[in-house]
Amino acid sequence: MHGPALSGWLLMVLCLVAGGYCLLRTRAVAEEERRAARGEAVMGFGMAAMALPAAVLAPPDWTWAVYAVVFGAASLRALTGARSGAHHVHHLVGSLAMVYMAVTMAPGAPGAAGGGQGGHAAHGAGGAAGGIPLLTGVLLAYYALYVLRSAGGLIPVTAAPAGAPATGGPHLSWGARPELALACRLTMGIAMFAMLLTL
Fold this sequence. Notes:
Blueprint: H1 5-25, H2 31-51, H3 63-81, H4 86-105, H5 120-124, H6 133-154, H7 178-197
């Protein structure tokens, strides 16, 4: 992605950790949640690859086409499950946003830098913004609301009464803890918002 190398490294590490945790979850949850966790792992690792600073590794021109194909396929898969719940709709929006960013950052796209560095160099060198401003704005608004809603879900509403069993207690494995899954989704939502800001 565009921008300073430090922010790219931070985004990359956060997305790698989130993707790794999602892989861990696939071993500890039921089948329906397992499918969602696999989709989130693909999203996390894809975002980590996109966030890698161009100064470290300038991706070949064909990389953006691979991103578009992978996340296009993820979009089709999320579309089949979108009728069954809001979380599948979120996966659909995320996958389509990744396709949008890959197409926008591809060499030859409006606003993308020419040459072998694709969209990585467009803003770092003061290039023109890529993408469709209205679509980018809608995606930014969606992710801002998603992050706020997810963050609110991490705030405990009330303390558990004395003697009541604690939810998410020590009997749950790391992969099955709902608060960690929510924190992972929150992290990826913040990372997506930050990546969209660079378009």
